Amino acid sequence: MAGLKLNNITKVYDNSYKAIDDFNLEIKDKEFVVLVGPSGCGKSTILRIIAGLEDITEGKLFIDDKCVNDLDPKDRDIAMVFQNYALYPHKNVYDNLAFGLKIRKVDKKIIDEKVHEVSKTLNLEDLLDRKPAQLSGGQKQRVALGRAIIREPKVFLMDEPLSNLDAKLRVQMRSEIIKLQKRLKTTMIYVTHDQTEAMTMGDRIVIMKDGVIQQIGTPNEIYRNPKNVFVAGFIGTPSINILSAQEFKSLLKLEVEENLLVGIRPENLEIIDGDDIVISVIENLGSERIIHLEKDSTVITVKCSEDREFFVGEKVSLRVKNEDMLNYFDKNTEKSVLI
Ligand code: ADP
Predict the structure, then answer these.
(1) Cα separation of 118 and 61, whole Å?
(2) What pLDDT, on a 0 to 100 scale, did the predictor assign at position 74?
(3) Does ligand 1 lie within 6 Å of residue 17's CB atom?
(4) Residue 168: which H helix or E strand, with range?
(5) Considering the domain boundaries, does residue 218 fall inside one?
């Protein structure tokens, strides 16, 4: 069990590309932190730095208050699970699970106990004799997790571990990993480009863009008070509507200073009778509908959970349900502004 501190970490690759710029993050013992951001923003680089697989160009990394910049990966007591399971194809599940302990020359009897304990935790008991080729994607992923757990590391690192799974299994594995982390009480750092995964899994989320942290906070804090337009647009599906002052006035008959942008979540809008906006697309999701509306060249999205019938081409009006839930941003800096 361990806390981590990343102090002013900068990473410049050999080709002089700066992948990480002044990254500061403190992770508490037993915390589940998710790093999220678009592809190429530096998430994997940070994980690889923590694991010791990449050198740090500037800054310091602490594990339990000990600076580990120069500590070998094998001495860091960290386990990493990747997107590609990298199981040994010729070994069965039992031997895949046991391998890490065998090379550490752990006693055979203890290895056997641990393999059975871990396979019970992960529901792998009936699969111990199978080779990886005889397993489904979800089962392989559980074996990969098991191989990491069996070592009882101080810190778990996971790099997009669910992206090879189909949608249903991904949702199932998401909750299994959350339960597992709570049960094992291990510090977990999880990387994903999927904002839903970040929102549902993390105690705290770190949102990154171009190697720079944009915001750190709980899922609620980030959803409710995004620090800039990028974060506002990245978190939440469908995306937040960002309107200029003119658009805000034209679509919603509300006034705001000219130098501001207004962020309105689709669930904070209501379609009412009127004739100034046209419905252009209706996505029916069963329990709710995502309705896209257009006026001039502005498109706005509404999440609608009422029963009322709508049709494409229909003219309606819009109303903000709760003005306290609006977000405001400076038009030039795109940073949030409190008003
Ligand atoms: P993410 O995990 O967010 O997709 P990465 O951490 O893998 O992003 O990469 C961050 C940036 O650093 C990307 O632009 C990537 O192309 C670049 N990068 C990654 N590894 C190397 C490397 N070994 N040499 C040069 N550039 C690299």
Answers:
(1) 30
(2) 86
(3) yes
(4) helix 167-184
(5) yes
pLDDT in tens, 8-57: 999 999 999 999 999 999 999 999 999 999 999 999 999 999 999 999 99
Q: Does the beta carbon of 121 lie inside 6 Å of ligand 1?
A: no
% residues pLDDT > 70 (the chain): 99
- Residue 13 in contact with ligand 1 by CB distance below 6 A: yes
Average pLDDT taken over every residue of the chain: 94
Kindly state whether residues 127 and 62 are assigned to the same domain. yes
Q: Are residues 182 and 313 in the same domain?
A: no
Give the pLDDT of residue 36: 97
Res. 1 pLDDT band, cuts 50 70 90: low
- Of the pLDDT bands very low, low, confident and very high (cuts 50, 70, 90), residue 106 is very high
Whether residue 147 is contained in a domain is answered as yes
Give me the CATH number covering residue 50: 3.40.50.300
Task: Tell me which residue has its CA closest to atom 22 in ligand 1.
Answer: 13
Which range marks the domain in which residue 202 is found? Answer: 4-234
> How far does the centroid of ligand 1 lie from the alpha carbon of residue 53, in Å?
13
Domain boundary among 189, 209, 234: 234
One domain, residues 130 and 201: yes
Which residue has 């050999």 as its token pair? 14
Residues 286, 198: one domain? no
Domain boundary among 234, 256, 287: 234
Are 222 and 51 within 8 A, CB to CB? no
The protein residue with its alpha carbon nearest to ligand 1, atom 26, reads 13
Tokens coding 42: 């530096």
| Domains identified in the chain, total number | 2
Q: How many CB atoms lie within 10 A of CB 295?
A: 17
Q: Is 311 in the pocket of ligand 1 (CB under 6 A)?
A: no
- The CATH number linked to 324 is 2.40.50.140
Residue 26: name the closest of 7, 49, 52, 45 by CA: 7
Q: Could you identify the residue written with the tokens 């997107």? A: 83
Rounded (5°) CA angle 292-298-300: 30
Reported confidence tier of residue 257, pLDDT bands at 50, 70, 90: very high
Q: Of the residues 9, 23, 44, 163, which should be mutated to test ligand 1's pocket, given the most ligand atoms within 8 Å of the CB?
A: 44
